[in-house]
Amino acid sequence: MSNTYKSAGVDKEEGYKTVDKIKKAVGETHNSNVLNHLGSFGAFYEIGGYKNPVLVSGTDGVGTKLKVALDSKKYDSIGVDCFAMCANDILCHGAKPLFFLDYLACGKLDSEIAAEIVLGMVEACKDNNCALIGGETAEMPGMYQPGDYDVAGFCVGIVEKDQIIDGSKIKPGDKIIALPSSGFHSNGFSLVRKVFPNFEEEFEGKPLYETLLVPTRLYYKDIHKVIEEVQVAGIAHITGGGLYENIPRIIGDGLCASIDASKIQIPSIMLELEKRGGVAREEMFGTFNMGVGMIVVVDAEHAEKVLHLLDDAYEIGEITEGSEKIDLKF
Known about the structure:
Distance between the termini: 69 Å
Strand content: 25-35%
Strand order of the largest sheet: 8-10-5-11-9-12
Shape: globular
Number of strands: 12
Helix content: 25-40%
């Protein structure tokens, strides 16, 4: 019998099935700016209506949270995570997401699983007025084991040049406002899985994996609601490295983000991990978002308006003079 691509472990027909299952849903994310459809070598997106547009791009994956999803056979939320990790990053500069592309790699393609993952991305794109205009599915036997998947994404947004938010306008006296996370989001799962090896155990009346797989919160609507009403000096997406690593990325020299950690509303699952794993509080704050998914920095006179615009936001500190860039007081 002669060798074929299928005998080497790659089933092209399963790839075609995947496209068939997602094509209609993906098309529902398109708008008049999308000039072609799935199947072309490149995706076309027309830009109009801007005076001096700047494209802002971001790429990310979901890390080993994917392992929790695969072991629990729950795949749809991972697509939301992938989109959110990319789109939330570009929001930090005031950009509106325009389009998204995904990359899905596996050892042996299952069109049902692949479609569930992508359909999660579709729902997230719809929620953010963003078009899913292309992607790549790679079946790679020998590189990945059967049942293994990896997911990554790439998002492009747009902002007027004179409206870019980069932290350069942050000054002493500005207030730091927290937007709550929906949980661990997509960071720190190597430690999560070490402390919680059994995803089926019960936590607060339901299987633990349900809590662990709550998708990363999408902040597009909240952030742009604020931007439209208030001049925002800085925005930080709290991902890997927690507050310690992400807030300093927007703080200029000679300034310090002084934060009162006692004001932070830490999710119960994180407190349980801290206790069960014997993890030091500083290590927790240096690994996880600890309940803060994003922060916005605004002039003190605008703080109350921001809190009024965002029902669940709350103040956690202010900008002071200093050389450390962040001072987290426990």
